[in-house]
Structure formats: structure tokens, C-alpha cells
């Protein structure tokens, strides 16, 4: 049985905005599964449905074998949830925060003190356990958030943008913590992220979500392997339509995609193809201002399925101001 099963899930708000539109995926026990998408893609709304904080408009979802709509209390007892915004009380100590969370999650008073000590040690906060959280760094607070999500020893852990705002060192530490959760506790972890490198490095599998819809799903390696060849980016200061016509009939050109003031050309061998690409454009009267080459990335996967770069999609979502994550 999968730890999470999502079938054609949808969510439409009263103002008519459709935040989630037919999302389906499965998460196995013992894997880290990522929902990757820009701000406004519907990631957080999907998670809020799964942790029973909001109800879906349509579709079905099961967590730890329980229907999130019919059995919300059973779901809540079996999950941990770390929201985007920290849930810790900065005027309490780390130990006090964990103890209160354990009491709210119905952890037996006989086992709670030892479990609190164990978790504080596990996330590296033993020395700071009795200090007020307001003295903690951002990374320490986030590790305490995760400890609070683990206090009831859940079957499934949900993390919504867990590393947003952290410095690179704190982010790397948190990645190792999440890998330990998976490996040592055989726990299913579902996280949302808008960091391409995080999804690539951390997730066993991921679903790329755009405008409330899953556009593709798989392991990071498999998704990137679907994108053949190399990507050559040509800065043309405009003239992308003329460039498309000039390059379309060249051998080994797999795909041509407009890219702002230039184009992206997918070719079998980028280094070998660059001279012929530049030569063909110059013969067509199009000046090439800059050329770069890269191997397939998750940004290329996103571009292939949505027609735009990941960063551009994030800018678009921010500009729309939809308030949906």
C-alpha cells in the first residue's frame, strides 16, 4: 500500500480560481517525493488538502491508508506537518515547544520526555534545548520545526518549502536530516519546493506542477534523460522568428524554442554544432551576441513541458498575485 495516493484531485476557491486541477500521484513508504513548481503552481494547496487543513473540490486522496475527506482524525494522528511559516513559539524553549507539541499529538506522558530528548539530540539541538527559541538561528528553528513534525513518530511527513530563507549551509544540513529520516525511519516524505537544485539532489521521485496540473513525473535522472542532447542558448538581440527559419533544416537540430531576445536550440552534440549554428545565422544576416551550452537540467525539463523557463514562470506567478501556492 502506498503511503500517499492522490487521484484526480482538484480545488476551486469561491472566487473561481482553480488552484489544483486534476492532480494525481503516489508516494511509497521510504521515499522522498517532491512537488516542484514555481510560486502559485498549487503545491501548497495540494499539501493542505492532504493534511486535512482544507477540503478538495473533487477527486480522492488517501494518506497512510485513510481517506482525507472521510477520516481526517485518523490521518492527523499518522502524519507530521511542517508548514512554510515556523510553528514554534519563540518565547518558549526548544524543549517546551516539543513537549507541548507531543501533548497535542496525544503522545503518552510516560514516553514523551525521553522522546523529546531523543529528537533534540537527533536534530542537533541538545545544547540549545533549554534556551528560548528567539535566540535560535533560522536553521536551528527549522530543525526544531522538523523535530515537532516527528514527535508523534508519523508514517508520513509533509514539508512545505522547508528550506525557504535558509542560507546554503543550513540548507545542506537540512537535506542531510531529510535523507536520514528516509533511511533510518523508512518514512514517506512529501516536500514542496521551488528550488531546482533541491529537487534534483534530494528527491527520489518528483512531480513538476504548473498552474495546478502535474505536467510530468519521475526520478530526476529519468526526467532529464528524456531531454536528448545539449542545449545551445543563442543571444540574438531579437530576430528569433528569422533564426527559427534559418536553423530548422540543419541536421541534428532536435528542437528550437524562443527565449526572450534569442533562442534555445537542442542538438545532439552542442560543442560540434555551435560553429554550424552560428555560421547559418550569420549567413541569414542575424548577429549572434553570445553563445552558451549546457547539459539537460530540470529547468530544461520544465521548459520542454511548459514552454517557459522555471524562473520566468515564478516571475509570472508573482506578477499575477494570485496568492495560491
Task: Tell me briefly what this model is.
By secondary structure, the protein is of the alpha/beta class.
What does this structure look like?
It is a single chain. By secondary structure, this protein is of the alpha/beta class. The chain has two domains: 4-219, P-loop containing nucleotide triphosphate hydrolases (Rossmann fold, 3-Layer(aba) Sandwich), CATH 3.40.50.300; 228-295, 2-Layer Sandwich (Alpha-Beta Plaits). The chain has a six-stranded mixed β-sheet with strand order 6-7-8-3-9-10, with helices on both faces. Strands 2-1-4-5 form a four-stranded antiparallel β-sheet. It has helices spanning 43-50, 72-77, 94-104, 112-122, 138-150, 168-185, 196-202, 220-225, 240-247, 270-283, 298-306, 310-320; strands at 4-12, 18-27, 32-36, 58-63, 66-67, 79-82, 156-160, 188-193, 205-210, 213-218, 230-235, 253-259, 262-267, 290-294.
Helix count, DSSP H or I runs of 4 or more residues: 12
Classified in CATH, the superfamily of the largest domain is P-loop containing nucleotide triphosphate hydrolases
Strand ordering within the main sheet: 6-7-8-3-9-10
3D shape: elongated
Features:
Alpha-Beta Plaits, six-stranded mixed beta sheet, 325 residues, alpha/beta, four-stranded antiparallel beta sheet, Rossmann fold, 14 strands
Topology of helices and strands:
Elements: E1 4-12, E2 18-27, E3 32-36, H1 43-50, E4 58-63, E5 66-67, H2 72-77, E6 79-82, H3 94-104, H4 112-122, H5 138-150, E7 156-160, H6 168-185, E8 188-193, H7 196-202, E9 205-210, E10 213-218, H8 220-225, E11 230-235, H9 240-247, E12 253-259, E13 262-267, H10 270-283, E14 290-294, H11 298-306, H12 310-320
Parallel strand pairs: 3-8, 3-9, 6-7, 7-8
Antiparallel strand pairs: 1-2, 1-4, 4-5, 9-10, 11-13, 11-14, 12-13
Amino acid at each position: 500500500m502506498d503511503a500517499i495516493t492522490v487521484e484526480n484531485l482538484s480545488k476551486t476557491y469561491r472566487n473561481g480560481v482553480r488552484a489544483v486541477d486534476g492532480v494525481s500521484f503516489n508516494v511509497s513508504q521510504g521515499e522522498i517525493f517532491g512537488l516542484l513548481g514555481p510560486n502559485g503552481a498549487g503545491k501548497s494547496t495540494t499539501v493542505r488538502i492532504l493534511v486535512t487543513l482544507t477540503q478538495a473540490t473533487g477527486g480522492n486522496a488517501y494518506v497512510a491508508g485513510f481517506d482525507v475527506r472521510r477520516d481526517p482524525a485518523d490521518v492527523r494522528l499518522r502524519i507530521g506537518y511542517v508548514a512554510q511559516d515556523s510553528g514554534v513559539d519563540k518565547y518558549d524553549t526548544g524543549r517546551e515547544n516539543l513537549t507541548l507539541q507531543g501533548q497535542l499529538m496525544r503522545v503518552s506522558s510516560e514516553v514523551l520526555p525521553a522522546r523529546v530528548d531523543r529528537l533534540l539530540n537527533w536534530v542537533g539541538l541538545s545544547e540549545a534545548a533549554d534556551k528560548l527559541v528567539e535566540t535560535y538561528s533560522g536553521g536551528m528553528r527549522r530543525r526544531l520545526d522538523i523535530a515537532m513534525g516527528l514527535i508523534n513518530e508519523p508514517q508520513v511527513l509533509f514539508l512545505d518549502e522547508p528550506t525557504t530563507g535558509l542560507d546554503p549551509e543550513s540548507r545542506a544540513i537540512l537535506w542531510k536530516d531529510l535523507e536520514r529520516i528516509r533511511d533510518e525511519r523508512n518514512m514517506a516524505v512529501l516536500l514542496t519546493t521551488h528550488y531546482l537544485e533541491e529537487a534534483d539532489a534530494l528527491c527520489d521521485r518528483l512531480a513538476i506542477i504548473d498552474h495546478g496540473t502535474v505536467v510530468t513525473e519521475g526520478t530526476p535522472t529519468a526526467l532529464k534523460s528524456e531531454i536528448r542532447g545539449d542545449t545551445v542558448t543563442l543571444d540574438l538581440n531579437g530576430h528569433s522568428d528569422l533564426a527559427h527559419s534559418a536553423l530548422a533544416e540543419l541536421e541534428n537540430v532536435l528542437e528550437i524554442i524562443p527565449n526572450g531576445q534569442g533562442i534555445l536550440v537542442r542538438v545532439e552534440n552542442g560543442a560540434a554544432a555551435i560553429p554550424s549554428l552560428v555560421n547559418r545565422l550569420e549567413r541569414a544576416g542575424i548577429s549572434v551576441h553570445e553563445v552558451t551550452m549546457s547539459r539537460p537540467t530540470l529547468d530544461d525539463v520544465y521548459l520542454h513541458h511548459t514552454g517557459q523557463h522555471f524562473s520566468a514562470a515564478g516571475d509570472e506567478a508573482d506578477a499575477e498575485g494570485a496568492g495560491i501556492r
